[in-house]
Amino acid sequence: MAQGNTERVLVARTHRGERAVRATVPVLDVAGHPLARLPVCPPLLIAQTLAAQRASAPLPRRDRADLLAAAARIFLADSVGGFADYRDDVSAVSGHSRETADALCRAVAEVAATATERAYAARPVAAVESWRDAGHVAETGVWSRRGETLGAIVSGNSPTVHTAWLQALALGYRVAVRPSQGEPFTADRLVRALHEAGFRNTDVSFLPTDHAGADEIVTRADRALVYGGVAVSRKYGANPRVKVGGPGRSKTLVSLAPGQDRGPAVAAVADAVAAQSGTACVNTSAVLVDGDHRGFATELAAVLRTPRHRRSGPRVSQAAATALIGHLTARASDIEPLVPIEELAAPGHDGAVTLTPAVFVLDRLDTETLGSELPFPCVWVAPWRRGDGVAPLRDSLVVNAITSDETILDDLLEESSIANVHWNAPTTHSGTRMPHDGYVGEFLMTSKGFAANR
């Protein structure tokens, strides 16, 4: 990690290759120390790059798959800069521990290697990729791109946020990546690895920029993936060309049989709360318990205060910790904390603060509170009865049902506002062929009818 090196400047990678940009902004670690400088690409450069990307033809599918696999290997190697240095940079700016950052950074390579499989998992079984694949069939569907260019406005909470745009690259889109100004290192390393593997400058570009530049990318691209909070969802949610990765509000429903030991359920929920520093959209942020919810919450708080989990939260600046704790204190003014709020911020030796897990217990269902999520391990535990149904679980990215009652699964799967349903599998679980918020291919591709009279 090159801490304190203010002369290190990341470079934009446009349709013409590396490009120096006069305007830059600092990239700071969580304690406020400068690590590097990031260019701010102007709208004109963005427009030129996307125009060139649209004018270029995609590489053949087999080449794209081979190059993605090669890029995954290069990403882990030192030919595009030392992997350990990269991991330490990610840890320094994101607040993830070095161990968590290492696991997440290595997961990026797996995401790149499997991008083609992930992307084509969305193809309808009756559709073919090209009319030439139809053989002697008189009529079929042809899976086709909805556009040629994709803009990816990515966040910096986890390196694996790059999963979706890598799938777009696998499908033949030419991609313009605007990295997070907080954590640009993963996008930079990925694009360099992709170029070294053999993707062209017009296949994928690295365009750091400000909010105006991000809007330019969204405007110029045929399709866009945008990540952010409620404000981003409101800004782009009605635009059919934009897929918004917004708040997760992932929840766990616990409905055990009478007399069943709840210890394994408590341990599983604790892991789902604390994984990935508690900053991911799939972290459990609310638990609804059928039965003794207060007892469950008490045991959960005890597990999350053990050494294994206590330091699982992210490191943030003192100012960020003060703001978050202040917001939480106001938000939970009438809710019982099972971990004293004043003990949540643990100062470190480098001037940063580790946010430790918070557990609150409610004695009634409050959907507004249960929909609250903060960027560290914070969980709300509330009572639930079978008669409450799925209403308190609506608008969730993931709901994990820890239960043997299969009718609960039916109800959850029939609720359209719940994106993913897990059965005794943590909300943080994922798989190569599983959708995240729907398959990305559903947004990027469409099926066209094709008929031939040979």
Task: Note down, in words, how this protein is organized.
By secondary structure, the chain is α/β, with parallel strands linked by helices. The protein has two domains: 12-246, Aldehyde Dehydrogenase, Chain A, domain 1 (3-Layer(aba) Sandwich); 250-423, Aldehyde Dehydrogenase, Chain A, domain 2 (3-Layer(aba) Sandwich), CATH 3.40.309. It is built from 16 helices and 22 strands. It has helices at 43-55, 61-76, 83-94, 98-113, 115-120, 163-170, 185-197, 211-220, 230-236, 263-274, 293-304, 307-310, 318-331, 367-370, 406-414, 440-444; strands at residues 12-14, 17-19, 24-28, 34-39, 127-128, 139-145, 149-153, 174-178, 204-206, 223-227, 242-245, 250-255, 284-289, 315-316, 336-337, 345-347, 353-355, 358-361, 378-383, 398-403, 420-423, 445-451. The strands form six sheets. The chain has a seven-stranded mixed β-sheet with strand order 15-18-19-13-12-20-21, with helices on both faces. α15 links the parallel β20 (398-403) and β21 (420-423). α3 packs across α4 (98-113) and α10 packs across α11. The longest helix has 16 residues, at 61-76.
